[in-house]
Amino acid sequence: MKILTLYGLVVTLLVYCQGIHDAHDRNTGKSIRRIQNESEDSVFNHDGTTVLTRFRTLSGYRRTIAETGSFGSFLRNLPLKSHGTNVLLYDGSVKPGEGIHCAVVNLDIGDKNLQQCADAIIRLRAEYLFEKNQFPKIYFHFTNGERADYVKYAEGFRVIDVEHNMRWVKTAQRDYSHETFLDYLELVFTYAGSYSLSRELIPVKNTVDMEIGDVFIQGGFPGHAVIVVDMILNEKTGEKQFLLAQSYMPAQEIHILVNPKGNSPWYPLASSGKLVTPEWTFDYDDLKRFVDE
């Protein structure tokens, strides 16, 4: 059994938090009001309650295929709060800044500063697998490489401090409830992040092969990650465009991003170069994917 070093985790988390303020200053987006005023009639269905029903396709485009029961279908059908809703931080305050989001996912994030960027993506992937009862597939790695299996947690094992080391020890009863599942995720959020998640995902060799559920991620302290939640295709030109969702720092509700380079939330897919989002700039080479086992 691998041993999780508490000291190493604490140092890692401190370094991670040290860079939070620098990352939070990367707000270069346009005002959401401009985007809504100029294109909301053609892009937004105000009454839509999911990603699928809230965002209309662009002229000449159709949605790509996402099989029923797939991760892509799960993301495309994420529930959304009413149109125009603010993004809330974990403490109930409003996320500052304009030109960042155009919709808010209706998913409770709790009252702890835990569900940040990579954590939100972990949450979405885990919720999908939990809904499918695919419990053995729910596992993630801590920053130090230690694997954290949901099944182990549900069977009553907990990470505890034993002589200044962290070990899995059975201290609780077997419980596969959603409440315990969320407790497991809090553990993962505490000791994992963009660095560990980036090492779990596999690179997408050719970005034109993007799928819903793929992730743009730069692992680091801090790093950042956003997830593709919908895609559309122009059958005449072959051009694809996509929607992105993120959380950020401090912990905040998951939200659909505005495209700061246009008057639409849809991002044109490119084969290379930079992907500019309101709070972070990625390379297209940063595109990665969950491994389906």
Account of the 3D structure:
This protein has helices at 6-18, 20-24, 32-43, 51-54, 71-76, 117-131, 150-154, 178-191, 194-200, and strands spanning 4-5, 61-63, 101-104, 139-141, 147-149, 157-162, 165-170, 202-203, 215-218, 224-234, 240-246, 255-257, 267-268, 274-277, 280-283, 287-289. By secondary structure, it is of the alpha+beta class. The protein has one domain (4-289). Strands 2, 3, 8, 9, 10, 11, 12, 13 and 16 form a 9-stranded antiparallel beta sheet that branches. Strands 1-7-6 form a 3-stranded antiparallel beta sheet. A two-stranded antiparallel ribbon has the order 4-5. β14 (274-277) and β15 form a beta hairpin. α6 (117-131) packs antiparallel against α8.
Write the element-wise H/E pattern from the N-terminal end onward: EHHHHEHEHEEHEEHHEEEEEEEEE
Distance between the first and last residues' Cα? 23 Å
Strand content: 15-25%
Number of domains: 1
Uncertain stretches of 5 or more adjacent residues:
1-38
Summed over residues and divided by their number, the pLDDT gives a mean of 87
Question: Structural class of the secondary elements?
Answer: alpha+beta
Number of strands: 16
Q: State the share of residues found in helices, binned by percent.
A: 25-40%
